Amino acid sequence: MVADVVIEEISYAAVNAAREIFDTTLGSGYVERSGFVRLITSRHGVALRATDTNGSTVGVVAGECLDLDALVRSVPEDQAQAVRVALGTSCAEPVGLVRSVAVRPDVQHHGIGTQLVSAAITALRQRGANTLVSLGWADDRGCHIAGVLLALAFQQRGVFDDFWFADSHQRGYRCPSCGGPCRCQAHLFVGSIPAALDQLPVASMRIEGSRARR
Fold first, then answer.
1. Whole-angstrom Cα distance, residue 170 to residue 191?
2. What is the mean pLDDT of the chain?
3. Residues 190-207: pLDDT tens digits?
């Protein structure tokens, strides 16, 4: 059964609740507060949350519209060249990067992740994205976001072992699956805006609380 949620832009007041879900699901400290706040204030950033009927935050997604060089700089330094090679020359800029998706553990597997990613794609398109990219975390249970992205017409372009190992060691965050430093894989997915839009549920085309960005 698909959860009844509202997708809305994240305000400053909701930052702590959003980061708590990121910390629980992706690892404490993986999504830094300063970087997340930057996405809220930037006209190129996307920061959305799903709220339940009580107004509680049950899921979050972060993304950004940027050029290919900036995208490559955003991944762990020791993985940048491998990601650039895997992306090749077919990514039309600007690129819409779906950075991080997290759903509160007690409400997972009810379509909230799909609704969040769908809304993020809509927002990234509004910010000018021509290509969509996402790096999915994968542990011994598989790539957690793969089903959502493949259903939205993304294609897998690469698999990277120990993707966050050096980064998690340097920054001190712990993986919720393997501890730290993180030895999990990353799976690279690339999608086109037209193909993804063809798969979007109609509800995702409207995001509550839209506001002008500087």
1. 31
2. 90
3. 999 888 888 876 544 456
CA-CA distance, 113 to 89, in Å (whole number)? 29
Secondary structure letter of residue 184 according to DSSP: -
Q: Give residue for tokens 């990277």.
A: 160
Separation of alpha carbons 196 and 131, rounded Å? 10
Tokens representing 51 are 């709220």
The pLDDT value recorded for residue 180 is: 82
Q: How far apart are CA 51 and CA 127, in angstroms?
A: 23
Q: Would you say 148 and 119 are in contact if contact means Cβ atoms under 8 Å apart?
A: no
How many CB atoms neighbour CB 24 within 10 A? Answer: 14
List, in sequence order, the alpha helices (H) in the chain. 15-26, 33-41, 68-74, 80-87, 112-126, 146-151, 165-171, 193-199
Fold of 6-205: Aminopeptidase (3.40.630)
The strand pairing partners of 17, in sequence order, are none
Stretch 23-31: mean pLDDT: 91
Per-residue pLDDT, 212: 36
30 alpha-carbon distance from chain centroid: 12
Q: Are strands 155-160 and 185-192 parallel, antiparallel or unpaired?
A: antiparallel
- Dig out the tokens for 14 from the structure: 């909701």
